[in-house]
């Protein structure tokens, strides 16, 4: 019986444990932190051995294969030692993909991947396909493979999940964009992060597809210098393409083997250029899976966006409050500010991942009337913008930030929470941050 050791007792770890046990592995889950009660219950119910609060190395080193949670960096001593011992370390995505015959659509990118994943899932559901959504979102891929017999898997994949693959190859891969993010995990080298994202296509064959943003210089440069086997299907807002998805007379045109007009961009449920791109990518993927164009159109017209992503909370005294807590990097915040139509009170800050805020300068100049810092370390934000924005206030929590915003904002303004940072200094995660923001707005 082979030993499967799982490092991390969260969603991906517990899902892998269930699948591993089902497939006849001797499973041991080890978490240096404390495993949440809901996951402990699942492990106990499935009679899976686990520990939390420490790692028993003697047991871990007996592994034939190790699945590590995407949150654990490669530089951790335990991981280094495992590698020295030649014990294979893989991600949940790699482990689970060996046990499914379902068609996999994998979606990665610095921004837009959650929305695009939800869009593809929404379209395939509308087309009555037997589809499960997982990866970085919802129920873990491994648990779905163990418990549900899905014909299609739509997976949101982070670079950390892709770092742990060996043979994993989605039939359709979508690469939404690449901008500097998580550089603290990649030795501050942008090219390491870029290569990580492109791992999504490294095992694809000629009959697989890579859908990507042809307006993204980073992606185009990489493709010019590297050979891929997959069929390339670009999407672009800027140019007509020989093959792929583009805009003509405000209509989304799909071109692969035949040409079809899907819909006018004016009727898309989600607004903003970046969302038009997400919709174009999702339309192409669905079309490759033989979904009819009117089903694609209806789905893109009635889709409701992801929570914590430019989510309209309430309008109070003529001021619109928007929760964009999911904007954990500068590029995501760029999209948010770009779509603001009124003077904006911007709530920003958290754990800085090596951010360069200068990209935001033109938008801040044009749209932001006040900045409210929401983080423990705000110096960089203050230094960057103190010459451009007259009013910058530091706060120590969502409730305080919202109260200050309420005092500053006037009728017709927007209060935007779009932090451009991770949330781990004051909150559990970006959902917790978004929920506390919404609660504070509702209590005004």
From TrEMBL:
Protein's name according to its UniProt entry: UDP-N-acetylmuramoylalanine--D-glutamate ligase
Pfam families xref list: Mur_ligase_C, Mur_ligase_M, MurD_N
Keywords per UniProt: ATP-binding, Cell cycle, Cell division, Cell shape, Cell wall biogenesis/degradation, Cytoplasm, Ligase, Nucleotide-binding, Peptidoglycan synthesis
GO cellular component: cytoplasm
Enzyme class: ligase
Subcellular location: Cytoplasm
Main localization, broad class: cytoplasm
């Amino acid at each position: 019986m082979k030993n499967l050791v799982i490092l991390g007792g969260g969603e991906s770890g517990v899902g892998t444990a269930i699948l591993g046990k089902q497939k006849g592995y001797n499973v041991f889950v080890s978490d240096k932190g404390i495993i949440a009660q809901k996951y402990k219950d699942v492990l106990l119910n499935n009679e899976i051995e686990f520990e939390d609060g420490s790692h028993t190395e003697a047991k871990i080193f007996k592994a034939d294969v190790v699945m590590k949670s995407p949150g654990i960096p490669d530089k951790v001593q335990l991981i280094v030692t495992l590698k020295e011992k030649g014990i294979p370390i893989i991600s949940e995505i790699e482990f689970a993909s060996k046990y499914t015959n379902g068609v996999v659509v994998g979606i990665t990118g610095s921004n837009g991947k959650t929305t695009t994943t939800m869009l593809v899932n929404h379209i395939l559901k509308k087309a009555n396909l037997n589809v499960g959504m997982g990866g970085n979102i919802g129920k873990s891929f491994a648990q779905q493979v163990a418990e549900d017999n899905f014909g299609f898997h739509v997976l949101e994949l982070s670079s950390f999940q892709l770092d742990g693959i060996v043979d994993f190859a989605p039939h359709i891969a979508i690469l939404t964009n690449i901008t500097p993010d998580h550089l603290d995990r990649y030795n501050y080298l942008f090219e390491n992060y870029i290569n990580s994202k492109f791992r999504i296509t490294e095992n694809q064959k000629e009959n697989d597809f890579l859908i990507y943003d042809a307006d993204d210089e980073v992606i185009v440069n990489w493709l010019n210098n590297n050979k891929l086997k997959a069929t390339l299907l670009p999407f672009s807002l800027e140019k007509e393409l020989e093959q792929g998805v583009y805009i003509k007379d405000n209509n989304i045109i799909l071109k692969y083997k035949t040409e079809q007009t899907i819909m006018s961009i004016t009727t898309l449920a989600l607004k903003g250029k970046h969302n038009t791109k997400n919709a174009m990518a999702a339309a192409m993927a669905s079309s490759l899976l033989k979904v009819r164009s009117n089903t694609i159109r209806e789905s893109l017209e009635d889709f409701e966006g992801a929570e914590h992503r430019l989510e309209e909370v309430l309008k109070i005294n003529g001021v619109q409050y928007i929760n964009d807590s999911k904007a954990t990097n500068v590029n995501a915040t760029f999209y948010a500010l770009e779509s603001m139509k009124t003077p904006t009170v911007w709530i920003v800050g958290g754990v800085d991942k090596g951010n360069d805020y200068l990209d935001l300068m033109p938008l801040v100049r044009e749209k932001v009337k006040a900045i409210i810092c929401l983080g423990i370390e705000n110096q960089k934000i203050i230094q960057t913008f103190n010459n451009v924005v007259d009013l910058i206030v530091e706060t120590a929590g969502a409730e305080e930030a919202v109260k200050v915003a309420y005092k500053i904002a006037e009728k017709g303004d927007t209060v935007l929470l779009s932090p451009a940072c991770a949330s781990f200094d004051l909150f559990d995660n970006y959902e917790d941050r978004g929920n506390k923001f919404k609660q504070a707005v509702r209590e005004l």
